């Protein structure tokens, strides 16, 4: 199993055409846990659920790690698992959109970053409400793009769409958000 | 992620979009990460990894996808079929002795089975023709046939044996009560060949000469008054001595053993200790290697034995012989792969010489 391989070299650049992810599972976990956890905390209402989903994602990833080809970015692979896990969760729970108060964390957590303070709760609530007004595709794309911090090509891989399609959805989603900002609405 | 990619070119100068993207970025950063979960989950994953490794060690293919398992199954089946085919082929071609060239030579029925021999390199066969000629038959294409006139005799030449180096042939002449052992130097590109008398004795019959490892002595059968003895004559000093009671001596390639026939059975003597072991009823022992030898049973069955085994074990060596002729003698070349077979044909009555290999 590849996870037993103890190599710590960074993967080669995907643009070079000979991309190869040689790092073991534990190193990839260390790198990607934060992004997956943040992404799921953004997408589901309960932080408890988000953390449970994060656990599920990495357990699934470990079981399927033999199937990861290593010639494509690990980010695309892990977020495809994360996104599918999220979609399954939503189907089963018919969850309501994230409540902003809970989303921003009423739980005591010493890992809050200072930047949080730069964005007022009101501003974030407003942004969140506006994101909820987007179509599901637009939400998926913008969430993966700006909350999971994936590249266009990686978002395309996660959602199984073409890059041009993702660019279009992203563009229209941002345009819609822009108009909401200009109008100042969040209904 | 590059800034160019992150912010579409058409909107970079748009203040609203810029503000929006800044908000998104800040929003992402503001989402807390559960580091306690990160540490706990890592422990859980490490334990699971150990379990998976253990499962994998117990059942190496258990974790394979179904299509891989099927593929492996097919590959295994195919490999098994190939292995069986190769095994059968090896059993057929390597396990048994198969005649490749039948009737290379035919000798009159009254001829001696000792009148023909194969050289150590398996390049040619020598035989006695017309009572007083030594002829060779090439086996490979690089060797040319040779005819050597033996010393004139009023008797006949009855036996011959190639030296290990292949440059000499020991020849036995029987002329009335007189028996002679000759050494014939075979002609080369630089010499015409010659004969020299090694030993002469009256009232005895010599036979079945066999060269020692370094061609410095010849063992032979000396028969007198119905008794068979094995004697050795040095080709250098002309010394001679009796070795054992028996006949048909055959040195092993390394000189450690001498196989011979006594009381109808093939026996092997270890030269260092003089210990003798009996292999079984038969005749005409021939060494295939330093430890393996074969001999012919009275019923024509080829037998093989390995003197490295304690005690000696003999077993049948299958001979794929589609012809009716019965095997009398098998004589291995030094390479241990080719064997000269002397067979007796009844219709018409003659000795048939064939080449076989294992």
UniProtKB/TrEMBL annotation, chain A:
A GO term, aspect molecular function: sigma factor activity
Pfam families linked: Sigma70_r2, Sigma70_r4
Keywords associated with the record: DNA-binding, Sigma factor, Transcription, Transcription regulation
UniProt keyword DNA-binding, yes or no: yes
Domain of life where this protein originates: Bacteria
This protein's record includes keyword DNA-binding: yes
Alphabetical GO biological process terms: DNA-templated transcription initiation
PANTHER family: RNA POLYMERASE ECF-TYPE SIGMA FACTO, RNA POLYMERASE SIGMA FACTOR HI_1459-RELATED
Family, as annotated: Belongs to the sigma-70 factor family. ECF subfamily.
Entry protein name: Sigma-70 family RNA polymerase sigma factor
UniProt source species: Brevibacillus gelatini
Lineage: Bacteria, Bacillati, Bacillota, Bacilli, Bacillales
From TrEMBL, chain B:
UniProt KW Transferase keyword: no
Keyword Membrane: yes
Keywords: Membrane, Transmembrane, Transmembrane helix
Family annotation (Gene3D superfamilies): TolB, C-terminal domain
Transmembrane residue ranges: 72-92
Similarity comment text for this entry: Belongs to the TolB family.
Cross-referenced PANTHER family: PROTEIN TOLB (PTHR36842:SF1), PROTEIN TOLB HOMOLOG (PTHR36842)
Name of the protein described by the UniProt record: WD40 repeat domain-containing protein
């Amino acid at each position: 199993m590849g996870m037993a391989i103890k190599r710590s070299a960074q993967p080669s650049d995907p643009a070079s055409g000979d991309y190869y992810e040689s790092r073991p599972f534990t190193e990839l976990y260390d790198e990607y846990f934060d992004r997956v956890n943040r992404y799921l905390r953004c997408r589901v209402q309960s932080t408890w659920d988000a953390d449970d989903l994060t656990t599920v994602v990495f357990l699934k990833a470990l079981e399927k790690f033999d199937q990861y080809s290593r010639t494509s970015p690990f980010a695309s692979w892990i977020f495809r698992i994360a996104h599918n896990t999220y979609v399954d969760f939503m189907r089963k729970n018919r969850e309501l959109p994230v409540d902003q108060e809970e989303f921003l964390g009423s739980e005591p957590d010493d890992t809050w970053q200072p930047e949080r303070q730069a964005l007022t709760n009101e501003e974030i609530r407003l942004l969140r409400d506006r994101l909820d007004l987007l179509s599901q595709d637009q939400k998926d794309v913008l969430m993966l793009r700006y909350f999971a911090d994936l590249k266009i090509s990686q978002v395309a891989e996660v959602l199984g769409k073409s890059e041009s399609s993702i660019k279009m959805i992203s563009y229209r989603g941002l345009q819609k958000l822009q108009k909401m900002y200009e109008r100042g609405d969040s209904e | 992620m590059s800034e160019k990619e992150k912010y579409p070119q058409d909107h970079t100068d748009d203040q609203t979009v810029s503000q929006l993207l800044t908000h998104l970025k800040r929003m992402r950063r503001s989402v807390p990460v559960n580091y306690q979960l990160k540490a706990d989950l890592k422990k859980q994953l490490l334990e699971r990894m150990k379990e998976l490794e253990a499962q994998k060690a117990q059942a190496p293919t258990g974790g394979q996808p179904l299509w891989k398992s099927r593929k492996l199954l097919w590959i295994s089946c195919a490999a098994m079929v190939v292995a069986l085919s190769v095994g059968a082929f090896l059993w057929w071609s390597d396990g048994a002795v198969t005649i490749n060239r039948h009737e290379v030579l035919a000798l009159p029925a009254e001829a001696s089975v000792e009148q023909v021999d194969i050289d150590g390199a398996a390049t040619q066969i020598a035989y006695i023709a017309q009572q007083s000629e030594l002829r060779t038959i090439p086996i490979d294409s690089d060797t040319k046939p040779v005819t050597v006139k033996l010393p004139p005799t009023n008797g006949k030449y009855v036996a011959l044996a190639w030296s290990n180096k292949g440059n000499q042939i020991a020849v036995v002449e029987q002329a009335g009560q007189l028996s002679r052992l000759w050494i014939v130097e075979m002609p080369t590109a630089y010499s015409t060949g010659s004969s020299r008398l090694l030993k002469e004795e009256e009232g005895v019959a010599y036979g079945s000469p066999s060269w020692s490892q370094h061609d410095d002595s010849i063992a032979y059968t000396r028969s007198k008054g119905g008794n068979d003895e094995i004697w050795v004559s040095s080709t250098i000093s002309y010394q001679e001595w009796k070795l054992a009671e028996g006949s048909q001596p055959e040195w092993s390639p390394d000189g450690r053993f001498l196989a011979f026939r006594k009381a109808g059975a093939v026996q092997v003597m270890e030269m260092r200790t003089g210990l003798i072991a009996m292999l079984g009823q038969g005749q005409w022992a021939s060494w295939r290697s330093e430890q393996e030898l074969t001999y012919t049973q009275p019923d024509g069955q080829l037998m093989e034995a390995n003197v490295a085994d304690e005690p000696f074990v003999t077993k049948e060596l299958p001979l794929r012989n589609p012809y009716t002729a019965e095997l009398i003698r098998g004589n291995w070349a030094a390479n241990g792969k080719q064997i000269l077979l002397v067979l007796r044909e009844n219709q018409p009555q003659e000795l048939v010489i064939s080449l076989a290999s294992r």
